[in-house]
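Write out this protein's structure.
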Amino acid sequence: MTEITSASAVALAELIATKKASSLEITTAFLDRMEKLNHKTNSYLHINPETSLEQAKNADSQLAAGKRMSALHGVPIAVKDNLTTTDAPTTSGSKILEGWVPQYDATVVAKIRQAGMPILGKTNLDEFAMGSSTEFSAYGPSRNPWDLDRIPGGSGGGSSSAVSGHLAPLALGSDTGGSIRFPAAVTGSVGAKPTYGAVSRYGLIALASSLDQIGPVTNSVMDAALLQDIIAGHDPHDSTSLPATLGSMAQAVSTAEVKGLRVGVVKQLSSDGFQEGVKERFEDTIEKLTAAGATIVEVDCPSFEYAVAAYYLILPAEASSNLAKFDSVRFGLRVMPEGNPTIERVMAATREHGFGPEVKRRIILGTYALSSGYYDAYYGSAQKVRTLIQQDLAKAFEVADVLLTPTAPTTAFKIGEKINDPLAMYLNDIATIPANLAGIPGMSVPNGLAKEDGLPSGVQILAPAMQDGQMYKVASIIEQLYVGEWGAPLISQAPDLEVL
């Protein structure tokens, strides 16, 4: 591993701005590492070195002409493969979209191109972002750089394994119930889900439209802040895009201080059901914040008990509607059955062959929840629970500036350990789901290694809607408390893939 591939995005941007290294040199270093090591982690599904290098050359030419397009100009980035790109396939981890090249860029992709950032490749994910381990990818699971026999989280395990394995300095992910934050926690990286609507979803292959949100996966809080500043903002192509700007996240990080900070600890997400080592790391974080001068208060969110159940009615219902477009008629895979190939039989054969088991499970569940006679009992009731969760959070934020929870109940589990137990898999998102149901921002930062297995743990920061800056401030405070103790970010302690 070179100094370039182990550096933060901020450090790489400084090298490029001061012309101590070029975007071409940095992009080449990452591509070389990807060529040697991606087979170990399966982080990327699509890599096009020629395109990446051409984009890096263009970034260098812009800088030579005096045009620095953003604070991360020239820094290469990975993109989750459910974001449309005109120069690379977008499969969403599914056989039904194998080889499909979209005719338009997602808004966030267009923004990173405008920011002068070369795209290294498209990262692996659970099929249509349905999963918590990347094991449901039609192209095989991604692996955790801390232990290649373990999962890197999901659905965005490709992005988290790329960043933590130093196969990319930055990545874009999407978070429907924790798909940025859970992978960040189990790989020792930083992951943020912005306020719903703060970042355009145009060009994101939808899973659950009222829950999905695009966000950054990075080495550090400042890296994430700079990336969110680039991708955020109103988009007329997205009807749910917020009209108001949330301000600069990078500015929020640079002004972070503990004085006067009120930190709420959620009673329902601080003890039962969490691995002992994860609980110890969380308690350590609370102790550090207390010693630094923060005020800790316990908050009660009783409706959180029903969050997972509500989520797994709302998400499948919306997913069954969103995935109806994959019908073999317009685009994507088409399977022709024997005999009389009516459109109904072609559609059934295509969806049977093209969708994996988890996608089929959720489509069936969602269709049932929306069916006549069951809508009010299931989907309607779940939406009522969603309102109760929003009310609980509103009350909690009356006495706390931010809320803290462990990001995940456990560290990374072994590949295959939970694949045949859907309920156990769903419970991985117990702490992250409430943020999506309420539309508030959430972020995971590393807070050490669990004693049982020496694997990364993460702490989650939740803030009120549209107060992403407050979330970033507290994330930066926690990060600095641990960097001061460790001497470097946790991600630098990960084993080198070259010797695994």
